[in-house]
């Protein structure tokens, strides 16, 4: 009997102990949970509280293990100035400038019309551009135009495309534009250097260019059709060439700064590069709207030179008379030397 009571009380004791233990574990666990949550809550309140975000927005520096410049700053306040300059000023100004340039060339085509040859073609051709010249020109034209379109998509796509297409398509287009622009950009710089070395000599301004400018190239106004004197390149082409070299170098350099942010550039450097890149690219795009208009529609016979490498004698005489005379006198010299050689050979044979 005693043994039975003892066994029962032992079982009871173990049950009570187990119950007490589980209860105390629960309390402990709850306690620790409470302590944890209160710490987390406090931290969250501290971190994401209004004061915290006010500090972040004010550009205050925090702590991070990253040693790169400005990594402790979550929101850079001067970046707001960049954003306003880019989105509120330059982006609309650029759009106005591009549409303005396109409108001017359309009006020029309607009101002034293309510059036609005033005399009939002779059918005799003069070599103007070598194969290398043409390869360089069309590579540059392709690279520049595709960079211009992808760049314009990056700036303006969110206004004229994004609202009208499915999100997936927009995402794909903008990702493609970004990658294309980033990877093809450096090629523009390479082509620019090649073009500079190939064409700088014939793009040096001379006295005749002043008259060409004053007569507006004989394309508009009272001098229309007067064909002012020009060397291999006329004053307009020379100006365009140097615009390409200077504005292009600025666009290429600022593009490289943006493309490779691994040389310790700060956010200010990136913002400045972005603005400089945009301005130089927009100036180039506007300038080349006129060039493309003249090449495609504005001047009879210009395009065939850049496509076949040869121009008609009439075209050369009317648009680049000084160059035409040089080529003619060189041809004369060559043919007189050839004639002399032939005569000497004949003489040798007879003696
Ligand atoms: C559809 C686009 C284009 C067309 C139809 C075109 C047409 C032409 C033509 C016909 C010439 C030869 C003019 C002459 O023989 O006097 C020329 C020259 C030239 N083009 Fe283009 N072009 C185009 C785009 C571009 C672009 C995008 C660039 C550069 C960004 C460019 C840069 C040049 C340069 C530097 C010259 C040489 C001007 C000189 O110094 O004589 N072209 N282009």
From TrEMBL:
Reported cofactor(s): heme
Pfam families: Ni_hydr_CYTB
Transmembrane residue ranges: 95-117, 138-160, 180-197, 239-263, 275-296
Region listing for Disordered, in residue ranges: 330-351
Keywords, in A-Z order: Cell membrane, Electron transport, Heme, Iron, Membrane, Metal-binding, Oxidoreductase, Signal, Transmembrane, Transmembrane helix, Transport
Gene Ontology CC annotation, any one: plasma membrane
MF terms (GO), sorted A to Z: electron transfer activity; formate dehydrogenase (NAD+) activity; formate dehydrogenase (quinone) activity; metal ion binding
Subcellular localization: Cell membrane
Residue stretches making up the Cytochrome b561 bacterial/Ni-hydrogenase domain: 128-309
E.C. code: 1.17.1.9
Membrane topology: Multi-pass membrane protein
Family from the record: Belongs to the formate dehydrogenase gamma subunit family.
Protein name: Formate dehydrogenase subunit gamma
Organism name: Vibrio amylolyticus
Lineage of producing organism: Bacteria, Pseudomonadati, Pseudomonadota, Gammaproteobacteria, Vibrionales
